Amino acid sequence: MLASTLAVFSLLTAVHAATGNANTTAICNSLLSALPTDIFWPESLTYNALITSYPFLQLRLHPRCIVRPKSAEDVSTAVKILSKHPEVKFAIKGGGHNANVGFNNVDDGVTIDMQSLNQVNIPQKGVVTAGAGALSQDVYDVTDRHNISAMVGRVGVVGIGGFLTGGGVSFFSPEQGWAADAIINMQVVLSSGAIVNANQTSNSDLFTALKGGQNNFGIVTRFDLRSFAAGPIWGGRITYGNGTEDALLRGFTKFKGPSNYDPYASGWLTFDYNGARPKLVTPISIMWYTKPEQQPGVLGNITNVKPKLADSTLIAPIGEFARNASMAVKGSPKRTIWATTTFRISPTIVHNIHRLWKDLVPKICDQYPGVSSQLTFQATMPAPKTGTPPNSLGFTSLESPEKDLVFLQIVFTFTDSSATEGLQSALKDFVRIFNAAAEDEGVKHRFVYLNFAASFQDPFAGYGADSLSLLRRVARKYDPQGVFQRQVGGFKVFNGTSKPSSNWHHRY
Known about the structure:
Elements: H1 2-17, H2 22-34, E1 39-40, H3 45-53, E2 65-67, H4 72-83, E3 90-93, E4 110-113, E5 120-124, E6 127-131, H5 136-143, E7 148-150, H6 160-165, H7 173-176, E8 183-189, E9 195-199, H8 204-213, E10 219-229, E11 233-240, H9 245-255, E12 265-274, E13 281-289, H10 300-303, E14 308-311, E15 314-316, H11 318-329, E16 335-344, H12 349-365, E17 372-379, H13 401-404, E18 405-414, H14 420-441, E19 444-445, H15 459-462, H16 465-478, H17 483-486, H18 504-507
Parallel strand pairs: 2-4, 3-4
Antiparallel strand pairs: 1-2, 5-6, 6-10, 7-10, 8-9, 8-10, 11-13, 11-14, 11-15, 12-13, 12-17, 16-18, 16-19, 17-18
Helix pairs in contact: 1-2, 2-4, 5-11, 8-16, 12-14
């Protein structure tokens, strides 16, 4: 067996040393030597299955090799090798649902696929442990059986790693806050290869920074999450008929009125423009109420609007809703880009933004074949309560963002790559136009939700100066060589863009 393994290793080394970027190929061969069962090359079935697992076509880049670690120690080994070669870019993939190119995959670099670190366990009452490669559905499939839940994604196929470290909005967030606030502990691999715990008493500054700071400090390999008793909830998708848009916008405005705050109500309101059927806008709500015996509560302002074309609301286990929400993501893969902005509710702001979008979106989408667009409104979550561990999202315990803040998501979905540049430009225009509308009403807010942000946006600046200062201090402390600033894509705390900063020591 050993002789056979060495023969395969020698053959692969010879083949890959002769092709591709010499430095990256050499690093891949070093990784193969250290982790012989964890490395996959472009001609392998595993490699190609991973590439096609990305839900959006623009994410299907082609790294020189893929590392699929089986343990935190494997991740440590890979990071030790990669950190010695600053010219080699690498990416970390959990669920792979961030739509920004270069955030979870890389061309001609190394992609670390966390898929094998997906174990979910209940070690004791009140705690769920989940590997950073777990999907939200993996968590629900375990917790539903025990009539408990944890704060993970509302779409089952979304990975928990990027979701939690970007803040995260869960079914229970209106009552319990950002999903990140339910993290008890994180196991983290630092750029040195050291494996540490980050929690309220150990590396507490790293613990705070990771709850909103994503991949700027290390690679999380395990989350220990607070669990709580939870049974079936009420909710589902409603598609509305013609003439309902104004009533739905009025209903959403009432739902978000500060005096109407309901900690059991969550979800979003979407307007969908289908380019295949010009000028047809379909309103859709996807809402949940976590006290099913009291449903629909304040959501009735939206869910009672008629006529309805379809209504799939029901009482069901939490995991069933997450699984159903995944169906739209699992459909025929397309290119998808998005951006976000935040504002305070007013009697007219969602009406004005909707009107601007509806006036402009046909002119944009009709320039390209098969383009659709979605405009989605949803509520911002509560800040951490006084006496609880803070996060890095920039809200203090004295604020109540859940009472009146709304963040929107503007999305374009398409198939033709030649439309990318034009639609990216339109996305920037929409953000600028929506921000101007909010500023005109005096309701613009600085917050930019990282998990919905476009690569041209700067969510860390939106956290505020104090939070950004903390994030930078923590990055310098735990990653003094700037490995996660220089070699890994994503939003960077030092240069405010998705591009790794090669000269961060000199600039900051």
